[in-house]
Every structure is written in C-alpha cells, then in structure tokens.
Design brief:
Length: about 220
C-alpha cells in the first residue's frame, strides 16, 4: 500500500492484495480531493481454475460508476427480508469483532443471507453492481474503502458511519446500502456502535494529516 499526498489531494494505492476470495488478487486506486474520493478504480480477479473472471470497476465524482464499461446502479431493494448483505471481520478478536458477530447473526436471521468475502473494496463494488444490497464493517482503513465508497455513491447508494453520521474515509465504521434499505440496517448497526463508543472503544477517526483536518471536520458536520 502507498499513500501520496499534497495539501489538498491524496492518492491511495493498494496493489496486488491477496484477499480471501479464493486467495485471488485485488488491485485498487483512489484519489482523494479535500478528503473526499473523486476518482477510483478497482480490479477484481474472481472465480477459480477454469472459471476466472475479471471485473474492472471505475468511478469519478459526478460522472457515475461502471463495471467493464457498463453503468452501475444499486438495487431497488427496500425490504430487509429480500436483501442479500455482506460484511467483514478484522483480524483482532476484540469488542468490535464481537459486536459485528452479533450483527452478523442478527441480520442473517432476517435477510436472505450475509456474505463474508474478505476485501472491503470488492464488498462495496458488489453493492454498487447490485450483487448485494448492503455492507457494513468496523475499523476499515482509508485505503480499504475509499475506492469502493465512491462506487456505491456514484451508483446511487447511501454511505454513512454505522451510527448514522456523515461519512469520510478517515472514519472507522462504514455502512453502505441502497437508499431504501439503509435506514433499516442502521436500526441494527447504530445501537451496537453507540454501545461500543459509550464503553470507550475507539471509533472516531484514524490519523488525519494536518492538511486534511479542516476538510474532514467540514464533511463530518
């Protein structure tokens, strides 16, 4: 992973990441301007022997998102019982991991299922593509989600923190879903997230470079 920054722009590169999707490769790049993703690309190598497929996602602010040149649009799903969801778990089995395991069980019971693929950028791209309807995860780094977040936003989805606050890539919780499903998922994620915060668990922002602090504060207000 590499980060190249100036006063207003930042390029996040995460190349040849071996993810948990059949141990395949994931390549991604995102450009931030004033702490907001404005351009992104994700290359997903999926499948397996004799069945490989490559999906190339791209997005730019205000110009939509595409997969292999075709426009992306989130689904119209509004009923959680008809939804297919996706989440992820970090390597540390701490309080956030336990809270997310509870969410995994809760939402598995009321939805068509909850997938766990292992790469947040791909999870978010799948929401934008319409393969899944919603995604949430704790403790993602900016380079994990910046590209995927822009895909969802440009495909018509809604992205906030898991307690419903305005989102930036420097926040430690991510909730992304179709417009009709987001509020329902928030009913589940918000209490768990607020309980973690009230217990003293750190779920604010990650380290924010000095040149970016004013933009993160503005976006979060």
């Amino acid at each position: 992973m590499a980060v190249l920054c100036c006063h207003t722009c930042c390029v996040l590169l995460h190349i040849c990441h071996i993810c948990h999707i059949c141990h395949n490769q994931l390549k991604l790049c995102a450009v931030l301007h004033k702490a907001v993703p404005v351009a992104a690309a994700v290359v997903e190598f999926a499948g397996g022997p004799t069945a490989w497929v490559t999906r190339t996602y791209s997005a730019s602010q205000g110009a939509g998102a595409q997969c292999n040149g075709k426009e992306l649009k989130v689904t119209n799903t509004t009923d959680v019982t008809q939804s297919l969801l996706v989440t992820g778990f970090g390597y540390e089995h701490d309080e956030a991991w336990s809270a997310n395991m509870e969410l995994f069980k809760e939402l598995t019971d009321v939805s068509r299922g909850v997938r766990r693929l292992g790469a947040a950028a791909v999870d978010l791209c799948h929401v934008a593509l319409g393969i899944t309807d919603g995604f949430w995860e704790y403790r993602l780094k900016p380079w994990d989600c910046a590209a995927g977040v822009l895909m969802v936003q440009e495909a018509g989805g809604v992205v906030t923190t898991m307690d419903g606050n305005p989102y930036t890539v420097f926040h430690r919780t991510t909730l992304a879903a179709t417009p009709g499903l987001h509020a329902r998922l928030l009913e589940s994620t918000k209490p768990k997230t607020e309980a973690l915060v009230n217990s003293g668990y750190p779920l604010g922002t990650w380290y924010v470079p000095d040149a970016y602090k004013q933009y993160v504060q503005t976006a979060s207000s």
